[in-house]
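Hello, quick one for you while I still have it in my head. My current little project is about how a certain protein chain folds up. You're getting the sequence in one-letter code plus the fold written as tokens. Would you mind checking whether the tokens look sensible for this chain? Here's the protein in full, and shout if anything looks odd to you:
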Amino acid sequence: MAITKDMSILEVVQQYPDTVDVFVNAGMGCLGCAAAHFENIEQGAMAHGIDVDQLVKDLNTVVGA
């Protein structure tokens, strides 16, 4: 299953723990914050000024999708 920008951050991290480093390296180190529980990847990336398409590509590379 490929990761998409519509998936929740928490869902991705729980399902694919190896993605934590990708989020942190991209500048989203607040995976334990309240927003991570309800924001999707696109919302989180936009809030941090991160290129969502590149982030999703990097996440999928890590999980082999």
The CA atoms of residues 8 and 40 lie 4 Å apart. The mean pLDDT is 89. The chain is about 55% helix and 0% strand. The two ends are 7 Å apart (CA to CA).
